[in-house]
Design goal:
This protein is 57% helix and 11% strand. The chain is built from 17 helices and 8 strands. It holds the Pfam family MS_channel_2nd. Keywords: Membrane, Transmembrane, Transmembrane helix.
Length: 421
């Protein structure tokens, strides 16, 4: 550089330290502008245009996170640093300032380029079946946080002129403070690894967590939060670590099984439960679904009564109902419901199916349907369930039964308006 200025002096140019510094600064700025125009206006613009028009998905994704723009700016910082060593005197104040600024520039855009690379990898992994099942966003956010801390330590050590090891050793005394400040990110990072390793949750799963009012599809698994879009289109944010420390329900198993459970009861008025007489049995025998059951039960009961001298056809003058076996209307109704579900086209026949009695209470005798539909689509499931119970309420009177319900205002008014007998 000194030789260049000496040659200029031979041509009559008066070169002073100030003018030489201004000349070097002009050369460096001009070089930086030329390189910037070549990289950003020519190379990157052409590459981006061709990548976006390409049918290859990875080319489209790789241009969406400014990866090459940041790499180009990183390269410009390296070129400025090289120029400072070429044009400026080593050890001078100007050289130190320009070199330090260039190094800080390189550190910053190295970090930003690394962030862009992680974002590209994350988007590409979401297109893969395996990657979409892992909470990679939280893990990548943890990596970004650690990288930012390391770059910040390097930048501070560069400005202070101290070794990074000194700053890192000094952080040991601040470990307790750092643990408190970064408690949620640390817990979230550990929780994300546990969620991934144990296959507890992935994007798109139906999550139900009443503690946080969450009931919907998981849309995002981050370092500190998990976002759930509820079925009413509201968004619930849950701390990531709470998915490990608290309990939640993941409905993905139901979706994968191909069947969704129906578990609903009706309460029968116990005062309407009675034995079926011959006329009732003859009438119910006309039901196609009940014919096999009725024939089998009638034969079984007749044989039992005959063996125990409790048959109405025996020579005994009077047979008590307490000594006989008889069919009841509620048992026959339960058998009808079971046969009805067995031939229903929308009930999964390979899964658990039963109609059972629960313990009676003040609301009557609960009769519960426990079955699974052959679809997991919510709207279809609700329609199937409603159709089954529509039919149930419509046919229950054929068995001489009534559904228990709390008296309404109209019932009480009718009772009050009834004249005394």
């Amino acid at each position: 550089m000194q030789q260049f200025f000496a040659q200029l002096a031979t041509f009559g140019f008066d070169i002073t330290p100030t003018s030489s510094l201004a000349l070097v600064a002009g050369i460096m700025i001009l070089t930086a502008l030329v390189i910037h125009l070549i990289l950003h206006r020519l190379v990157l613009r052409t590459f981006t245009r061709r990548a976006q028009s390409s049918r290859r998905l990875w080319l489209q994704i790789i241009t969406q996170h400014q990866l090459f723009q940041r790499v180009a700016l990183l390269l410009q910082g390296v070129i400025v640093q090289i120029q400072a060593r070429l044009w400026l005197q080593a050890g001078s104040e100007a050289s130190n300032i320009v070199t330090t600024c260039a190094q800080l520039w390189v550190m910053l855009y190295t970090l930003l380029a690394f962030f862009s690379l992680l974002d590209v990898i994350l988007n590409l992994s979401r297109k893969l079946a395996v990657g979409s099942q892992l909470p990679l966003k939280g893990i990548f956010q943890g990596i970004k946080l650690v990288s930012a801390i390391l770059v910040a330590i390097l930048a501070i050590s560069l400005l202070l002129g101290q070794s990074p090891a000194i700053l890192i050793s000094g952080l040991g005394a601040m470990a307790a403070v750092l643990m408190l400040v970064f408690k949620d990110p640390i817990l979230g990072l550990v929780a994300g690894i546990q969620l991934s390793a144990n296959d507890m949750l992935k994007l798109g799963d139906w999550l139900e967590m009443p503690k946080y009012g969450a009931d919907g599809a998981v849309t995002d698994i981050g370092l500190t939060t998990v976002k759930v879009r509820n079925w009413d289109n509201t968004i619930t944010t849950i701390p990531t670590w709470s998915l490990v420390s608290d309990s939640f329900k993941n409905w993905s198993g139901m979706s994968a099984s191909g069947g969704r459970r129906i578990k609903r009861s009706i309460h029968i008025d116990t005062s309407t439960i009675h034995f079926l007489d011959a006329a009732d049995q003859q009438r119910l025998m006309q039901a196609r679904l009940l014919q096999p059951y009725m024939a089998e039960r009638q034969q079984e009961i007749a044989q039992w009564n005959q063996r125990n001298n409790a048959s109405p056809a025996s020579n005994t003058a009077e047979i008590s109902l307490l000594n006989q076996r008889n069919m009841t209307n509620v048992g026959t109704f339960r058998a009808y419901l079971h046969a009805y579900l067995r031939q229903h086209p929308h009930i999964h026949q390979e899964m658990t199916l039963m109609v059972r009695q629960l313990a009676p209470d003040s609301h009557g005798l609960p009769l519960e349907i426990y079955a699974f539909t052959n679809t997991v689509v919510w709207a279809e499931y609700e329609t199937i369930q409603a159709d089954i119970f529509d039919h149930l309420f419509a046919v229950i009177a054929e068995f001489g039964l009534k559904v228990h319900q709390v008296p309404s205002g109209s019932d009480l008014r009718a009772l009050l308006n009834t004249p005394n007998g």
